[in-house]
Amino acid sequence: MKSTIHTYLNKTTSAAPLAVFRIGFGLMMLYSIIRFWAHGWIRTLYLEPQFQFKYYGFSWVQPLGDFTYVIFAICGIAAFFIALGFKYRISMLVFFLSFTYIELMDKTTYLNHYYFISVLSFLLLFLPAARYFSIDNLSRLKIDDKSTPQIPKWTIDSIKLLLGIVYFYAGLAKLNSDWLIKAMPLRIWLPSKYDIPLLGNLMEQEWIHYAFSWSGMLYDLFIPFLLLYKRTRLWAFVTVVIFHVMTRVLFPIGMFPFVMIVSALVFFDARLHERIINFLRRLLLPLRPFAIPLSRKRNLINPPELKHRNLVVPLLAIFFTIQLLLPWRYLVYPGELFWTEEGYRFSWRVMLMEKMGSAQFKIVDGAGNSFYINNTDFLTSFQEKQMSHQPDFILQYAHFLGDHYTAQGYENVQVYVDSYVALNGRLSQPYVDKTVDLYTIKDSFQHRDWILPFNDEIKGL
Questions:
Q1: Is-contact 457 336, C-beta < 8 A?
Q2: How far apart are CA 136 and CA 217, in angstroms?
Q3: Which residues 6+ apart lie within 8 Å of 266 measured at CB?
């Protein structure tokens, strides 16, 4: 067993797939930052709200006023440098830290693909993605240079493994009665897409809702294996393109479909990536006079062993162990996952719920006086929508209200909420025990026993 692992770790392969992946990743992240900025979302999501919902343990991560734009600028510049392969390690570290800081500023904006970018950028920190066709190796830009440096095979396989985890766990999450038996929540969402050209009429057909639900589950479960197998790889990639283009047409989820399409290219062998790089070489040929030749020649065909491999490999083994185990943490909590959402995030559960709620907060002081809160006095409409059906949001907001009115001079403040939530087309039902003073409850990883029981059952994973 030990010798097998050692043999595998010493296998090498062309650096071209990793170089293409680096370029695609950097350019898409640059475009994402520009797009986010251009839509004005920096101000509306981070600067205008007077209160941000925080991840547990990260309340110290705050927007920095107008300097928040600087964080986004730094993140975008780092992404551009990653695409160029310029000071790659530093650029990737800066991108990882700045992007993750942005993600942690407000939990309201949580999306699975934001988490995916943070996880992927952390992984890329340890991979030799600038070994080929980068400013860090300018001699590789020669149009007549046909040599390709070699890198450890496991470095490319690690990206494949991460993509496989994302897909496979997303497929496992769809193995539940709401998704497969009731076609929920697609049965709610798809009819609203009636105005899509050519496909609009189909979106109202019940059989389409079930077809999309079942095909989505099968796609997520099997696409990693079909991409790995050479005979099915091309057709699998065509399926990836069709699936994610359809996802982008039907749902406004930003750049994620394109990220997954470009990422799937890493499953192809080096010949395709060499053709892509040769195409880029021709595009960059006018810049050849500005290339700075390396003063010392190095053996790029058979480079030395990856630096610090004895440290990097165990670290990435721990990293992937966490990725494999973290989505299962919901099993330690009682109750229905979709209802309590304890262990729901960071588990690749994508678009599985249509959950809506209402939350009316009441403040009671020590003298017995009470009054109700207009949530729009403190929250944006987007924040209120997210808060109304997520228990950790409800608790954080209750503490914010308690602190606010304590600072206003009220004594012995108590905070109660009367809340109702509807899940995947069911009638709304009471969500939080309205007799519990939420201001006395501290946020933690413990089970939230102040959430009322779910009056139905969702079978499956």
A1: yes
A2: 42
A3: 17, 18, 20, 21, 156, 159, 160, 163
Q: Do 323 and 368 belong together in one domain?
A: no
pLDDT digits (tens, 9 = 90+) for 408-460: 989 999 999 999 999 999 999 999 999 999 999 999 999 999 999 999 999 98
Enter the pTM of the model: 0.91
Tell me: cis bond preceding 185? Omega within 30 of 0 counts: yes
The DSSP symbol for 372 reads: E
* Domain membership of residue 412 as a residue range: 354-440
Give yes or no: residues 267 and 370 share one domain.
Answer: no
Query: CA–CA distance from 455 to each of 90, 158, 270, 421, 436 (Å)?
Result: 52, 42, 54, 12, 20
Q: Phi and psi dihedrals of 361, rounded to 5?
A: -95, 140
* Same domain? 46 vs 190: yes
Token pair, residue 315, equals 């670290």
Chain Cα centroid distance, residue 164: 14
Distance CA 26, CA 79 (A): 5
